[in-house]
Design goal:
Blueprint lengths: L1 E4 L5 E12 L2 E9 L10 E9 L4 E12 L3 E8 L6 E2 L5 H11 L37
Antiparallel strand pairs: 1-2, 2-3, 3-4, 4-5, 5-6, 5-7
C-alpha cells in the first residue's frame, strides 16, 4: 500500500499483511523506491520497523539497501541492529504511520527479532506496500 510519493519521485510503501502485534507494539515491513539510483547505486530499501502505540515512538529493527526497485538486485548494505527508539511528533507523516499501524487489527503472534527470517520480495502490485518518509534509518 502506498503511503507517500515525494516530488522527486520517491515512493514509500507498507505491507499490511506483514503486521504483527505484541501488546502495544507493532512490527511491519516497509519499502522505499527511489525514482533513480543514488550515488552509491541504491534504488530501494526494505526495513522491518517497530511501533510503540502507547509511547508514540518507532525504531528500525533491520534494513537492507538494494540496487533495483522493490528490494531486488544486489544487496548493497544490510544492518540487523535495532536503532534507538524515536518519538513521533504530532502532525508528521511518521505519526500518521503510527496511527494507521496501531489501528490495524491482526491475530498473528509476533516473530521474535532473533528468529525473524528475511523472505524474498517480488515486485508488488500497485498499492501493496506502504512506507513513511523518514530521515536516515527509520526516524523523524
Amino acid at each position: 500500500m502506498v503511503i507517500n510519493k515525494t516530488a522527486g519521485g520517491t515512493i514509500f510503501y507498507l505491507d499490511p499483511q506483514s503486521l504483527q502485534k505484541d501488546g502495544d507494539l507493532r512490527r511491519i515491513s516497509t519499502l522505499m523506491n527511489l525514482k533513480e539510483k543514488n550515488k552509491v547505486g541504491k534504488q530501494s530499501a526494505r526495513a522491518l520497523e517497530e511501533y510503540d502505540c502507547k509511547a508514540e515512538r518507532n525504531r528500525v529493527l533491520s534494513f537492507s539497501d538494494h540496487s533495483e526497485p522493490f528490494a531486488m538486485g544486489e544487496t548493497l548494505a544490510r544492518d540487523d541492529s535495532p536503532t534507538p527508539w524515536k518519538n513521533l511528533a504530532p502532525g508528521t507523516l511518521g505519526q500518521a504511520m503510527l496511527l494507521l499501524v496501531c489501528a490495524l487489527n491482526v491475530e498473528k503472534p509476533p516473530v521474535p527479532v532473533d528468529k525473524a527470517v528475511e523472505t524474498p520480495v517480488e515486485k508488488p502490485a500497485v498499492d501493496d506496500w506502504w512506507r513513511y518518509e523518514g530521515k536516515g534509518r527509520g526516524g523523524q
